[in-house]
Sequence to fold (161 residues):
Amino acid sequence: MQDIRDLLEGLKRTPGILSSFVKSIPESRMDLRRGEGFWTIAEHVSHLAEVQPMLLERFQRFLNEDHPQFIPFNPGKDEPVTPVCMSPTAALLQFEQYRKKQLMLLENAGTQIWQRTATHPEYDQYSFYILARHVLMHDYWHMYRIEELWLTRDGYLTRLE
Fold:
């Protein structure tokens, strides 16, 4: 847990990196579906924005509960497989606004909160710390996928089955 400052710094930087990155992508590529089962770039950006309220709520539960029990967030199980598409501007704004709220909570959390554990059926271990790291990894996984959908030739695209 010595890397908490690094995690916080990464989470702080993500909105700016994501915004600059998305604004560099030609508008003609945003809604291009590269194949069956592929999300568009705009859908990835929207998804990043749409999950932020849920993530904030999870962080808040860690503050308010001794050992929260979470249920999986499974887009596609009870809702459409692809996210509702927001405008890139609205998605980036929502992402940034919720990230600021998350960071206020994370930066003010004491050591006991960072060590607090939870139960999550998808994971062998789950904690406030793991959730913070997971959020950062989730951000960057989607940003990598956006870059791949933008720049990679069809024969080299990663197929997610």
